[in-house]
Amino acid sequence: MRENVQLQGTGIELAESEDSFLQGVKDCIPTLLGYLSIGFAAGVIGHTSGLSTAEITLMSLLIYAGSAQFIVAGMIATQGSPAAIILTVFIVNLRHLLLSAALSPYFRQLTPLKNMLIGALLTDESFGVAMNKATNRQHLSERWMHGLNVTAYINWIIATLAGAYLGQWIANPEKLGLDFALSAMFIGLLVLQLVSRRKLLKDIIVVLCTVVSVIGASYVLSPSMAVIVATVVAATIGMVIEKWK
Amino acid sequence: MIIIGASIVTLIPRVLPIMVLSRKALPEWLMRWLSYIPVAVMAALVAEELLISDGKLAFQSNNVELWAALPTFLTAIFTKSLLGTVGVGILTVMVLRFLF
């Protein structure tokens, strides 16, 4: 009986260190380079389209989404109307609906207010890291998620600031291959998902369906809508296949 | 003004599902559907980045990113390290762009 209690005790402690804020910070590290390069690029583009450093920082603080910030900078540069800019940003970030929904079962233990704080800093990358952590688990730790999110957030703000400051001296950031960091990170997150889920055959079918849908949808829709449509179509196919078996 | 508006429309899709859905027990089919979202969305983002250019399939042999994706995928599969994958990816693109 006594041994049993002790065993349980160590189990909880182990789980705690794995679920701590600090562990969340550590688990964020592999994605930092991706955030840095994209944030840096967002800062450079903001600078070249005539935004002030204060405006660029405000965007990173409030919007905190790479694609949206590229679009705002680009459309301000071409004198787009505020309504058109806001609508485009909305469509580009609709993908977060799916991410936030997919994350929700793992934070059932928390109040809506606490979940709001987690959702507010949700990104593709933090979602990817969180879903890898969530494999074979029922819940995710709130502290761990905050560690992950806050690290990414701070890193993003620093990166865009650096981009805004150094933008004037960087002629060709593409030469360094930094723009590929984003694709490489998505590839890494995808592979880690496939390896850890142990549903390889179904997952591969879903991946192939996604690729075909993205290509097809790209001919008629904007890139961001194509991603959303392809995700919905492929996830539905995955659900149906699993039901059959 | 634009920044405030853009931040609100970015925030809503991020927070609404996790706030509302986590309060309810979801039906099994929906849970199963949601379980495929991570794989599907990551695959969609990768395919969009690598294969699409100006709304068309970009399958040319000078697509440096597509070639670089090969060692990047292999690194991910064999090392299962996110940092290593990103590092190899960036390095490959840098070398390829330098050579061609």
From TrEMBL, chain A:
Can you tell which superkingdom this protein's organism belongs to?
Bacteria
Cellular location(s):
Cell membrane
Q: What topology in the membrane does the UniProt record assign?
A: Multi-pass membrane protein
InterPro entries linked: Brnchd-chn_aa_trnsp_permease
Please give the family membership noted in the entry.
Belongs to the AzlC family.
A GO biological process of this protein is: L-valine transmembrane transport
Kindly list the residue ranges recorded as spanning the membrane: 29-46, 58-77, 83-107, 150-170, 176-195, 200-219, 225-241
Q: Does the keyword Cell membrane apply?
A: yes
Stated name of the protein: AzlC family ABC transporter permease
* GO cellular component entries: plasma membrane
UniProt keyword list: Cell membrane, Membrane, Transmembrane, Transmembrane helix, Transport
